[in-house]
């Protein structure tokens, strides 16, 4: 009988951590985080790392376990996460996977597609464009060369945009043409639970979360990292906007409004990504836990019996 992964997905600020902990406690197991920003120990407030109480409520893996100065790719995460899950499955038949980074979730549940080798000078040229002209020309180029991938990728993440562009340019084909829905057979069953809500509710929760982050000291956290703002990990929503404020380019009020706007855009892309999986069990953010836990037990039993 195969072991099981219960993957909890959904847009930012929807309550994934809370549900993952409930499920972990119900099945007496542990949690593997697939949030690509919560890996970094220097970024606590702006990435909404689980609180001490939440971390004590259920054991988490891959939370603040890396430094922003340490190169770390989704491929690295795939290897480490699979090794961790394999080890956890020796003690727990069920392990919880949680995160809003679709690429990192897919790395564990589906594996990677094979991409062509690209000449390094293409990336070098794209990096120079980013340094000299900013990310907007790169976004526009990706939209032209691969509108399908542009619709789902986090266009505010220069690493992802440049990676897609170098494949488009180097191969002469859209980056999305190399992405298939063929799953690699994993040694575990996968049950995906997605949390959803009306757009207005999601946006309101995002706005509230940003306000809470600021009250908890997000600006001070960003100030402490200003001398490292060139690092890729910090070129992300919540940090780059406040760097612009600290540089004197924006007012604080405008920077905060941009954080909220860019986070809303990110949430929209997360939903687009996760809705591609037709097997997802979608639940409202105000779910009935007793009913949901019963449904999950049924799904686990059905998967295990096949």
From TrEMBL:
InterPro entries: Dimethylallyltransferase (IPR039657), IPT (IPR018022), P-loop_NTPase (IPR027417). It catalyses: adenosine(37) in tRNA + dimethylallyl diphosphate = N(6)-dimethylallyladenosine(37) in tRNA + diphosphate. ATP binds at residues 10-17. Its EC number is 2.5.1.75. Pfam families: IPPT. Substrate binds at residues 12-17. Gene3D superfamilies: 1.10.20.140, P-loop containing nucleotide triphosphate hydrolases. Keywords: ATP-binding, Magnesium, Nucleotide-binding, Transferase, tRNA processing. The record marks 101, 123 as: Interaction with substrate tRNA. Its cofactor is Mg(2+). Residues 35-38 are annotated as: Interaction with substrate tRNA. SUPFAM superfamilies: P-loop containing nucleoside triphosphate hydrolases. Transmembrane segments: none annotated. Catalyzes the transfer of a dimethylallyl group onto the adenine at position 37 in tRNAs that read codons beginning with uridine, leading to the formation of N6-(dimethylallyl)adenosine (i(6)A). PANTHER family: TRNA DIMETHYLALLYLTRANSFERASE. Monomer. Belongs to the IPP transferase family. This is tRNA dimethylallyltransferase. The lineage of its organism: Bacteria, Pseudomonadati, Bacteroidota, Flavobacteriia, Flavobacteriales. The gene is miaA.
């Amino acid at each position: 009988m195969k072991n099981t992964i219960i993957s909890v997905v959904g847009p930012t600020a929807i309550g994934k951590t809370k549900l993952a902990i409930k499920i972990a406690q119900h099945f007496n197991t542990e949690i593997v985080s697939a949030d690509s920003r919560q890996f970094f120990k220097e970024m606590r407030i702006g990435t909404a790392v689980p609180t001490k109480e939440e971390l004590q409520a259920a054991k988490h893996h891959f939370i603040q376990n890396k430094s922003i100065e340490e190169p770390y790719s989704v491929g690295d995460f795939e290897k480490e996460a699979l090794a961790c899950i394999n080890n956890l499955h020796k003690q727990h038949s069920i392990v919880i996977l949680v995160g809003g980074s679709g690429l990192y979730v897919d790395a564990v549940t589906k594996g990677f597609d094979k991409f062509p080798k690209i000449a390094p000078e293409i990336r070098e040229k794209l990096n120079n464009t980013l340094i000299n002209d900013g990310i907007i020309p790169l976004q526009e180029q990706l939209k032209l060369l691969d509108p399908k991938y542009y619709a789902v990728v986090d266009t505010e993440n220069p690493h992802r945009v440049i990676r897609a562009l170098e494949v488009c340019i180097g191969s002469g084909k859209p980056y999305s043409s190399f992405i298939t829905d063929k799953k690699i057979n994993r040694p575990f069953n996968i049950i995906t639970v997605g949390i959803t809500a009306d757009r207005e509710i999601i946006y309101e929760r995002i706005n509230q979360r940003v306000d809470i982050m600021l009250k908890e000291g997000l600006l001070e956290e960003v100030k402490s990292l200003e001398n490292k703002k060139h690092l890729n990990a910090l070129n992300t929503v919540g940090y780059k906007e406040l760097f612009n404020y600290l540089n004197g380019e924006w007012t604080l009020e405008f920077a905060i409004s941009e954080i909220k706007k860019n986070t809303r855009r990110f949430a929209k892309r997360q939903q687009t990504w996760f809705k591609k999986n037709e097997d997802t069990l979608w639940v409202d953010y105000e779910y009935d836990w007793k009913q949901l836990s019963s449904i999950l037990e049924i799904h686990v039993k059905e998967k295990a019996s096949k």
